[in-house]
Specification:
Shape: elongated
Helix content: 25-40%
Strand content: 15-25%
Number of domains: 2
Largest sheet: 4 strands, mixed
Structural class: alpha+beta
Number of strands: 10
Radius of gyration: 20 Å
Length: 244
């Protein structure tokens, strides 16, 4: 499967003007646990993650890779916790699948959103853009504003827009106080709703850290905060999926 994806995606990228060669990667499962492509324009690392590790190990590796290489576009071979985590992080995830049609074998890309899966589209119907790999379904979702184009948490401005402008512009200390009040009754063994909100790129996770402190929850070391928060977002999404 990995060799076929490597060859097929290389041709697909070349047809769009991207001279990128695929590289098979091994993480201990088999030769071809992942297939990597490096694109110059846009500067993107496209990875097909076919045999992923557990979520925590993958997330630490993903954060490290992102810190070194910038934008990474992930396409997963399995619909599992990693897919759920990506949906929680940016509103959607991409899945790859190879199917045989007669004497021909083709690559299909599916789009996963919050608890929903679209029909898979042939790779040749997808596009590689400045914002990553775009399936027909993802293009429609973005046009409707149903998914975000990045992986950042909601900020205060996003909340104000979603509240129709009724949420005031607050001092950061007042934002913390409001979120503490929102999460006051959240059970101690459940993730905070505040995991979904951030306040600035310059001070990532400040609100989350301060809300945890205000609620008397155990502090999380700064070096582990990004991974911890991502896992809490995943737990929160899975929890509320079954409460609907």
């Amino acid at each position: 499967m990995s060799n076929f994806i490597k060859a097929h995606v290389t041709r697909w990228l070349a047809a769009q003007g991207h001279a990128a060669q695929g590289e098979l990667r091994s993480f201990g499962h088999c030769h071809g646990d992942a297939v990597d492509f490096w694109l110059c324009r846009p500067k993107t690392h496209l990875r097909f993650e076919l045999h992923p590790e557990d979520y925590r190990s993958w997330r630490k590796a993903a954060d490290s890779l992102g810190a070194k290489e910038g934008r990474i576009e992930w396409v997963f071979g399995r619909d599992d916790a990693l897919t759920d985590g990506m949906v929680a992080r940016r509103g959607y995830a991409l899945l790859v699948r190879c199917e045989t049609e007669g004497n021909d074998r083709r690559v299909f890309i599916g789009t996963v959103t919050d608890g929903k899966r679209t029909d898979r589209a042939p790779l040749e119907h997808c596009r590689m853009t400045e914002s990553g790999l775009v399936t027909p379904a993802l293009g429609e979702l973005r046009a409707k504003g149903a998914v975000r184009d990045d992986s950042t948490p909601l900020n205060w401005g996003d909340l104000r827009l979603r509240a129709g402008g009724q949420l005031p512009s607050l001092h950061p200390d007042d934002q913390v106080a409001l979120l503490v009040a929102v999460d006051r009754d959240t059970p101690a063994d459940e993730p905070l709703l505040s995991t979904l909100v951030d306040n600035s790129v310059a001070a990532p996770h400040r609100l989350y850290r301060q809300v945890r402190l205000g609620l008397g929850r155990e502090p999380v070391p700064d070096t582990e905060l990004e991974t911890h928060r991502a896992m809490e977002v995943l737990r929160l999404r899975q929890l509320w999926r079954y409460r609907r």
